[in-house]
Amino acid sequence: MIAPPPVYPVVSASGVHLTLADGRKLIDGMSSWWAVIHGYNHPRLNLALEKQIKSMAHVMFGGLTHTPAIDLARRLVALTPDPLDKVFLCDSGSVSVEVAIKMAIQYWQARGRPRKHRLLALAGGYHGDTFAAMSVCDPVTGMHHLFRGVLPQQFFAPRPGCRFGEPWDPDDVTEFAGLIGAHCDEIAAVILEPIVQGAGGMWFYHPEYLRQVRALCDAHDVLLITDEIATGFGRTGTLFACEHAGIVPDILCLGKALTSGYLTLAATLTTASVAETLSCGGAGCLMQGPTFMANPLACAVATASIDLLCESDWWQRSVQSIEQQLRDELAACIELPSVRDVRVLGAIGVIEMQESVDVRRLTPRFVESGIWLRPFDRQIYIMPPYVIEPQDLSCITDAVRRVLVEKGC
Ligand code: PMP
Fold first, then answer.
1. Do 178 and 69 fall within a single domain?
2. Which of 13, 25, 80, 135 satisfies CB 3.0 to 4.6 Å to 40 for a cystine?
3. What is the pTM assigned to this prediction?
4. % of the chain exceeding 70 in pLDDT
5. Is the CB of 255 under 6 A from ligand 1?
6. Is 289 marked as binding a ligand?
7. ipTM here
8. Is 374 marked as binding a ligand?
């Protein structure tokens, strides 16, 4: 039996620092899984919450609406590429993927093509923990395999092979093209994480792959869902990762950094054409009505977070300088025999270890070194809040190099 990893109690968090119950302070290199872009305990976000709680913490969103939801929807429509101008606010990233899948299925039902209800996803993809979301996660390494037989059966194309920033090989999309061509009568939508495959291996792939996928979806009458739950709001150096390829999806999922990690909220955006078509079907509207949909506190803090992000070009400058620093300071790790690859994109740095290394053993050493990183699978990954100071980021990269050398890694 595998021993469970240690768990560290946190008593407070401020800026880029986590304070443990025993008084130790850790510099956070994880942004609480991509979410906390503005740092913890931010005065402006705290204020937005305090203001909102005085008027209304929650109200049902069926038959009622409210200013925090309307303000947030307007911000999201303005921020995302045209023609994404319809917004569904839900309560977690996984649920926003469920919503996206339901939108696609209802769309084809409304168009009189109910056979189009399956998804084409990518090996190495990750889209969440709920059932439809699990069904489009990597079928081998994701959670899919544990539930094989009870999940909806989907189509899978191989993981994109060409790396971001390296030459494009047209063969990379051949198998995908074959699958979508052969099964387009059954496929409602393609779902993928644009540019960065996150939990399934922290892999950065070529933007041309996305452009080809967009063109193939159009050619075969298939919708494109992009899952930007992890990459949205600037993490890859552009506001949305799709911008690297200059494409726009039919349906876009956002979450995590939407509230800068304050509250659980996610959004699924689509075009007026998809929204109006699916509403014309027998159901008359999207069949989704969760209790905490568009929670006013979460909406208010999300609006404040977006306003903070868009105040100037500070986040672009910050993500660019994090990217440069990660490139400079992680480059030497490739010399270590246990390191298989080092890659950096935007405010994401990845050290991929050889298979022989048990990365879970590294976390306690990182904690002893005063940093918080939680390696997964074969990757040590660093994705700090955008507000991190260069000296704090250096503490993280120094500690990583030191731990790898000391461990004989
Ligand atoms: N999609 C992607 C790309 C993710 O990274 C995640 C979370 N790791 C999800 C979906 C699921 O989001 P949540 O954990 O908020 O349900």
1. yes
2. 13
3. 0.97
4. 98
5. yes
6. yes
7. 0.99
8. yes
